[in-house]
Fold these 2 entries.
Entry 1:
Amino acid sequence: MAYTKKDLEKIKNSLASQKKDWIKVGMSTCGIAAGSDKVYQAFIEEVKKRKLDIQVKQCGCQGMCYAEPCVEVHLQGLPDVIYGHVDKEGVIKILDKHVLNKVMVKDSIYDLRTKR
Amino acid sequence: MEQKLIFIKDTDNSQDRINDFYAFFLNALKENKLDQAAQVVRVADIGIYDKGLVVKISGGANEIIYAFVQEANINDIVCRSVKEDKIIPELLFKDSPKQLRIVLRNCGQIDPENIDEYIACDGYQALEKVVNQLTPEQVIEELKKSGLRGRGGAGFPTWLKWNLTRQAKDIQKYVICNADEGDPGAYMDRGVLEGDPHSVIEGLAIAGYAIGANKGYFYVRAEYPLAVERVEKAIKQAYDRGLLGKNILGSDFNFDIDIRLGAGAFVCGEETALIASIEGRRGTPRPRPPYPSIKGLWDRPTAINNVETLANIAVIILKGASWYSAIGTEKSKGTKVFALTGKVKNSGLVEVPMGITLREIVFDIGGGMISDKEIKAVQTGGPSGGVIPKEFLDTPVDYENLQKLGSIMGSGGMIVMDESDCMVDIAKFYLGFCVDESCGKCVPCRIGGYQMLSVLGAISEGQGKLEDLDKLQRIALAMQKASLCALGQTAPNPVVSTLKYFAQEYHDHIVNKKCRSHKCKHLLNYSINQDKCKRCKVCAINCPVKAITGDKEKGFFIDPKICVRCGKCFDVCKFNAIAKE
C-alpha cells in the first residue's frame, strides 16, 4: 500500500502512545562479535520462562563498543539504564533483580552521556 | 512517583573509597527515612573521568550530577537533592555532554529492522515535506544554508555537488550512496547502516529528488553482511509502504533503489572506481574531469554521497538549515562521527560537534588511555591521513585545522597511539596497506608506493641511511602530484606526517639503530639480566632457534647472532630477567 502523510502520523502516534516495558539488546556487528546474539536469545527464553510482560527488542550500536554486549532496560517508574558486558549470568541478574524487584544490578551499569 | 536512583562512581582510580561511600549513602538514606524512595547503585562507568567521586541522581524533575563529592557532602545531598530535588550549586558538575548525536540519532534507539520505529522517530517526514512542499532548488538552497560538507573525507560542499548534477542536462541521472568503507579501524558507516538504515535511504531519496534522478544505488562492501542484510530489509519495507517506487507519498516523484556489493577493494571507495565497479567493470579510477556530476554512471550525471552525509539530510530538512549551521565551526558545520579506537579506554562510535578538541574526544569521551603509558599521537583519516602529535591535542577538530596539521578529517577513523607505538612502524603499516590496495593503473602510485615501502622496511631493519629520508620526501611529492586518484595522492601522508613530527625517531632508527618503542624487532636486543635470573632454563627450553646456551653454574646467555628476536624468552620468563632494548 502506498502511504500518505496521514499514515506516517498515525504510526507515529500509535507507537508514541504505547506504554510498554522493554529490554533492548545492541545487535550490530560490534555487539554480535561480543556475544549479544546469545544474550538476546537468552533474554527471549528467560522472559518466556518467567512469563514476564516485557518486550525484548534489538537495536543498533549505541556507541559503547568497549562495553558490548550492551542492554538497555526501560521500566515504567524507573529511569532507563544501560548495562554493559552482559553475559548469560547477567541476563538472569537483570531479570530477577531489575525487572522483577526493581533493584539495579550493581557494578554493571554504563552511563552514556550524549545529547540527542 | 518514580523511584530515584543515585548512581555513584569513584572516577579517581588512585583510591579505593567506593565501598565506604556506598555505606555512607545507605546510612544517610536510612537516617532520613528515604531508603524506600531511592536506591544507591555503584556503576561501572558514569561517562565522566578524573572528577573524584561522581554522584548522579536521576528520576527527579531534573537529572543532577555532582563531582568531587566528599564524605561530608553526603548527608547534604540526601537531604536536599534526593528528598527535595534541590540543587547544591557548589558541587554541581556543569559540563554538558560532549557528544551530540545527529547522524547516530536513532542508532541504538530503534529496531533497525522495523520501519515503524523509524517512522515513529519522525522518519520519512522529511521526504514527505520535500516531495510535496519543496522544489528541488529549495532543497539545494536549504543544504547550501546548512553548510553541510561531504563526510567521506574531502569535505566537498554537498549542495554544490547536488547543484552541479542538477544542472547537468540529461534524460537519466543517478545518485549513489558510497558505503565502501575500508580504512583500518573505521566503522562509522557500518554502524549507521546496521543501526538506522532508513535514515540513509531517506537521504538518498531526497538526493534523488533534488538532482532529478529516479534511480539510486547503494554500493556496500560485501564484508558487511549484516549491513547489507539490514539495508535490503529496509528497502523492501520502504517499497511495501510506497515510500520508494512510484508516486512516493502521493507526489509524482518516482524513485528506485538497488544494492551493489563491492568485493572489498579499497580503491572502489574512490568515486570513478566505484562507478566502474557498479558498471561491472574492473574497479579502477579514471582521470577527472569529466567529474561524475557531468559524466558518471553509464556516462550519465551522477551524485555520489557518503553514508554519513546522507544520514544528515533528513534532519536538516526537518529541523532547518539555521539549526544545523549553528552547530560546529565557521567553515565546518554540524557533527562528525568518529570510530575511536586504539589505546583508549572507551573505544566506540562517538559523534561530536565540529570544533571539539582532540583532547576532549580522547580524555573526556574516550576516558583516557587504556594503560598508564602516555599518549603519543592521534591518527586520523586512516591511510590517507596522518598522525597528529600530542602537542596539538588542543586543536579544534574541523576540515581546515586537520589539513593544516598534515592530516585529514577522512571518513572518521581515529586511532589513539601511546609510547609503545613506533612511528616508523605505523608509517610502514599504513603505506603497506595502500601498496596492497593500489590498483596498479598509474605509475606513481604503483611504483612510488612500493619504493617508499622498501625504504621504510630498510629503516625499520636497521639498514637505513640518512639520505633515505630525502628520498622518501621526493617520492612522496611525486606521488602526491602525479597519482591518478586520491589513493595514490594521499598514500604518502602517514609517512610525510610522521617524518614531520617524529623525525627524531627516524634518526634513532637510522643512526643509533634503536627503536624506542621496541616495535621494530630487527633493532631489538635481548639479553639476560644475571642478577634476576634464577637459572631455571625455561628460556633456553623455549627458544625456537637454540640461541640460549649455558648451565646452572655459569648462567645462561643469548647469542645475538643466532637470536631471531621472536620474544619468546621474554614472554616465558617468570622473573622478568630478560631485558629488551
Entry 2:
Amino acid sequence: MPEPRRWWNSLRLRLTVGVSVLIAVLGLGMLVYIANVPYWAVTLHSPQPQTQVFIAPGGTSVSPPPANEPAAGIVVPGVSLREQANFWRYGLLGVAVMVAVGALAAYILVGYLLRSLESLRRTVSALSPDALPLRLPTFGREQEVQELTAAYNRFLRKVHHLLDAQRRFAADAAHELRSPLSTLRMQFGVLRHPESLTPAERQQTLSDMEAVLDGMVQTVESLLLLAQEPTPATWQDVRLADLVRTVLADVRPLAQSKGVALEADLAPEVVVRGEPRWLAVVVRNLLENAVRYNSAGGQVHVRLTAQGGQAVLRVSDTGWGIPEEEQPFIFQRFFRGEQARRVEGNGLGLALVEALVRHHGGRVSVQSTVGKGSVFTVTLPLQAAGV
Amino acid sequence: MRILLVEDHAPLARALQLGLRQQGYTVDVAATLEDARYALSISSYDIVVLDLRLPDGHGFALCRWLRARDERLPILILTALDRPEDIIEGLDAGADDYVVKPVELPVLAARIRALLRRAAPNPQPVLEWRGLRLDPASRQAWLNGEPLHLTTRQFALLEYLMRHPGRVISAEELLEHIWGAEADPFTNTIRVHIHLLRRKLGDDPKHPRFIQTLPGAGYRFAPPEEESHA
C-alpha cells in the first residue's frame, strides 16, 4: 500500500529537517568541545603552567590561576561560573542562528536541485495514452533524474510495443472481418427469400455460410495469437516428436483428400521448452501449407533432429514452390502469393509461424524452387537431449 | 438482364449469383479469366461484373480484351483493391464503374441498374409507355395506375422489351438475356411468356398496343403508331 500523501513525507522538507538537525548536532558538539578546550589545554601541557593566557568564550582574557591551586577538577580553570553561563547562552544562540540559516539555505537549495524532478513529474503526469511520446526529453544534469527518465523511457517503449500490437489487432481484425461479414450478410439476405431457392441452393448457401464463419473464427484466433506477448511462465518441456505425431494425425485427412503422401522421420528424444499449444500451431500451419499448396500425388516429409544444441524441424514438400521474388514476404501478415490465392486462406499462417517461433527463441527459414517444392526449417533451442 | 459475374471466391460468387437472381437478373459465374472469355465468346451478356485478382491473371486484361471486341457492354469492376491507382487504371482500361468490396447487395444492384440503364436505348429510371409504367428499382409495374402483378421472368421480359423500344428482338435474344444458361432453346418458353404477359397487359395480338409479334423475326415493343392503329 502506498503511503498516504502527507506534508511531512515531502523530500524537500525531510532534507531540510535533516540538514537542520545535523547543523544543530554539529553546533552543539562544537560548543561542548570549545567549552572543554581550556581544561584539556591545561591538563595536556605542563602540570603547573605559570603564564598561560586563555581566551574564554566572549573574548575575555583571563589570568592564569594561582600556582598553588591544583589544575584539576571539573571547573574550568581560569573561567568563572558566570562566564561559563554566558558562554553557553551565546553559544546556543549562535547555534540556533546557524540552524535557522542552514535550514533556509537547505530548503532553497534542495528545491533548486529537485526542480528537474518536479518538471519530470509534471511531464509524466501530463502524458495521455492517445499521444504518448516515443521518449521523454532530458531533465537536468542530475544523474539520478536522468536514470529515472531512462527508466521511464524503457517503460514507454514497452507500452508503445503493446499499444502497437493492440492497435494492429483492432485494425487487422476490422479489415479482415469486413469482407467475410459482407459475404455473410449477402448469404443471409439470399436466405430471407427461401422460396426463390431450390433445396440444393439453400443447402449450399448454408454450408457456404458455415465455411465463411469458420474462416472468420480462424482469422480471429490467429490475430489473437499474433497480438499476444510471450509468457514463458507457463512453458513446459515439450517432446516435439509426440507433438508432431499428434498434428500429423490431424492433417492426415486433408492430405488424403488431396492425394498427398505424408511421411515423418522423427528423432524421439528432442525436447524444447515452450507452450505446447503454440508449437502445435507452428507445426500444423507448416504441414497444412505443405499439403494445400501441393498437387495430387505430391509428398510431404517431416524430419525432426537435434543439431548443435538446436531442435531442427524440417518440413519439405514436392508442392508448387514459392517464386524467389515472393520469398521475402511470405512471413508478413496477409501476404498471399499469386499462386497461393488459388487456395482459401487468410494470409496469416506463416506470419503466425514466424511470430511463435521467434517468441520461443527460434528461427524459421525457407528454401523453395517453383515447380519443385519448398523446405521450411524451424530451429528451436534444445531444452535437453535424451531426457 | 443477363450478368456475367467473374469472381473466384466461390462462397461470395454463389451469394452474389443468388442475390442478384432474386433481383430478377440471370447470372452466370466464371471463376477465371479463361472461363470468362469463353462465356463471353459463346453468349451475349448485358453487363460484366468483374473481380480484379483472379487465379489466372488480372481483371484489367479482360477489360481491355472486351473493349477491343465490344464497344458497349458495360463493365463493373468489383474488387477489394481500393488504391487510387487501381481505380484510375480500372476505369481507364474501359470499366464503366468501380466498386470496392465489401459492398452491400442493394448498392451493387443499384449500380448495375444504373449501368444497364445508361447502356440501353431508353435510359429512363422508370419506364413508361401508353399508361404502362415499370419501375425496375422497386420491381413494380402499373397499367393505367393499377398495379400489375408480374412474375420475375415476366418483369424481366417486359423491362428488356421496354428498354429497347421500337427494335425487333428475336426470341433467341430474349431467351439468352432473360433465361441465360438455364434456357432450353427447344421449347416455346418465349411464346408462352409473351402470351401470359399480353394477357396481363390486356394486349390484343391482332391489334397490339404494347407488344407486336413479327412472325419469323421476333417481337417489338412500342410498335409504330400507324401499325398499332391499323
